[in-house]
């Protein structure tokens, strides 16, 4: 009986520790990545989606408050800033390849950015969403660190924006291969750039796992979209609000 009591005490201590939150986050992603590789990179087995489901289920099961979980997860959250700055690297490396493709890439970047905004807002409005929801959707297709910064700048909820951004990235990474195949888009640079615009970081990770050229163009699109959106979205938001 005393041994069981000791195990319970240890479990209670671990479940309330920020380091436990960090451990389950990293372990869940590694498990998701293992499943993704075992399924031969099936887009439906997205490692981020699997990790989110596992972490959400586990912290709900152990009744861990979100504030306690974030104390541990903030170590990973801190790296988002470094990841955002590192976007300069793929942009710099991809500049030489833009010489003969600058016009179609720029056109797709502008078109993709505008469609991602107005399609989401229109659908949310038709479904009866209030201003707090529609406002948080403006930067949803931008990589999460920049999207949260844009949300703070335009005065909407960064938390809601982060949720929409991550959801967009996961759905984009899962559905993009099927949609691009249906459209007959076979060139890796085209596929990668489209994924980078619509599914930002999570989609870019997916693109890199398939082909290096697709990943390079996806990271280029994600970086360019982030820079342009940081300037354009606040202007667009205030024009329509």
TrEMBL record:
Any GO CC annotation of this UniProt entry: membrane
Transmembrane residue ranges: 12-32, 44-62, 74-92, 104-129, 160-180, 217-240
UniProt GO MF annotations: hydrolase activity
Keywords noted in UniProt: Hydrolase, Membrane, Transmembrane, Transmembrane helix
Key word Transmembrane helix present: yes
PANTHER family: PLASTIDAL GLYCOLATE_GLYCERATE TRANSLOCATOR 1, CHLOROPLASTIC, PUTATIVE SEROTONIN TRANSPORTER
Annotated protein name in UniProt: Putative murein hydrolase (TIGR00659 family)
């Amino acid at each position: 009986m005393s041994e069981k009591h000791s195990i319970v005490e240890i479990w209670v201590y671990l479940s309330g520790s920020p380091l436990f939150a960090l451990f389950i986050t990293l372990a869940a992603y590694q498990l998701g990545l293992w499943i993704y590789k075992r399924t031969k990179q099936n887009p439906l087995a997205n490692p981020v989606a699997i990790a989110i489901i596992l972490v959400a289920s586990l912290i709900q099961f152990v009744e861990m408050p979100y504030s306690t979980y974030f104390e541990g997860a903030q170590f990973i959250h801190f790296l988002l800033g470094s990841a955002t700055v590192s976007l300069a690297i793929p942009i710099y490396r991809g500049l030489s390849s833009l010489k003969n493709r600058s016009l179609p890439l720029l056109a797709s970047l502008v078109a993709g950015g505008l469609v991602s905004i107005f399609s989401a807002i229109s659908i949310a409005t038709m479904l009866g969403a209030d201003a707090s929801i529609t406002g948080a959707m403006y930067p949803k297709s931008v990589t999460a660190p920049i999207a949260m910064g844009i949300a703070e700048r335009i005065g909407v909820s960064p938390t809601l924006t982060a949720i929409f951004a991550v959801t967009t990235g996961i759905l984009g990474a899962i559905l993009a291969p099927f949609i691009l195949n249906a459209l007959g888009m076979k060139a890796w640079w085209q596929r990668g750039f489209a994924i980078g615009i619509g599914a930002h970081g999570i989609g870019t990770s997916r693109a890199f796992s398939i082909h290096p050229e697709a990943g390079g163009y996806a990271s280029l699109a994600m970086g360019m979209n982030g820079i342009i959106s940081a300037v354009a979205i606040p202007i667009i938001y205030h024009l329509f609000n």
